[in-house]
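Long-time lurker, first post.

We've been arguing in lab meeting about whether zinc ion would sit comfortably in this protein at all. Half the group thinks yes, half thinks no, and nobody has a model to point at. So I'm putting the question to the forum: if I give you the sequence and the SMILES, can you give me back a predicted structure of the complex? Inputs are below. Any interpretation is welcome too.
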Amino acid sequence: MSLERVRDILAEADRHGTAVLAFDAMNYAMIAAAVQGAAAAKRPVIVMLYPEMAGYVSLEGFVSLVKEQARQVSIPVGIHLDHCSNFEYIVSALRAGFPSVMADGSLLPLEENIAFTASVVRTAKAFGADVEGELGHVGKAANERDYISSELYTQAEEARIFAEATGVTALAVAFGSAHGNYTRPPKLNITRLREINEAVKTPLVLHGGSGIPKEQLIDTFRNGINKFNVGTEFSYLNQKYTGQYFEQARERDGACGHVEYAREKLSAYIMEKCRLTSCTFDS
Ligand SMILES: [Zn+2]
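Top reply:
Settle the argument with this. Predicted structure of the protein with zinc ion, as tokens:
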């Protein structure tokens, strides 16, 4: 199957009334695990690069690594640039071959967010690329106010205006989640999500997925979330397993044993995580 357009992967998830999982990855072990773990679960997957991680892998290198992994499996695989509010950087990602990017103008007032996102959509069109926008603000989990303050949540009517004015392929919305590790489990506002989903045809995206209780996640997939981003949890597991190898398995598998150990453990995690969704793929 190899590489597919993110818009097609999301449309398929939408048809199934579920979400596709998207993971931030920055090295070979994480990218291979994301693709191979999803393939083992027979689920589509989107592999994302978080711009802050681009110091560890180049834009072109990232695209090549994901493509190489995608060629070896039969599930749909998407490539996406996660949170970016820098227009020039987004253009370099498009030039490097990213078929999907996020234009994050969520900290801007509505009109400016629309103008910024619409300009990215126009540019991305020339590359045949997809664009995810964000409205409302998904903040930081370390700051409890960021996910319990409903004034930061996306308003359904504004979401409709934003989606129509920008022409985004996907829309990240805020209804009680936050990035990073939560100080205590969040309580997502499913009613708000339902209202947004009724007002907007565009596939919706849930950010800040690390640490949301399973039942709540499944509820969001049933109520309009078609893409579910996981960053923090996956990243910390990468560190944990690499460390674990040196504690437990030192000298066992030669100089690169830790890479293989992390890839194997992370693949098992991804397979399990992907099974949260009901979007199976059999070829
Ligand atoms: Zn995010």
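For your lab meeting: Residues 171 and 204 are 5 Å apart (CA to CA). Residues 83, 138, 179, 207, 229 surround zinc ion (CB under 6 Å). Whichever side wins, do check it experimentally.
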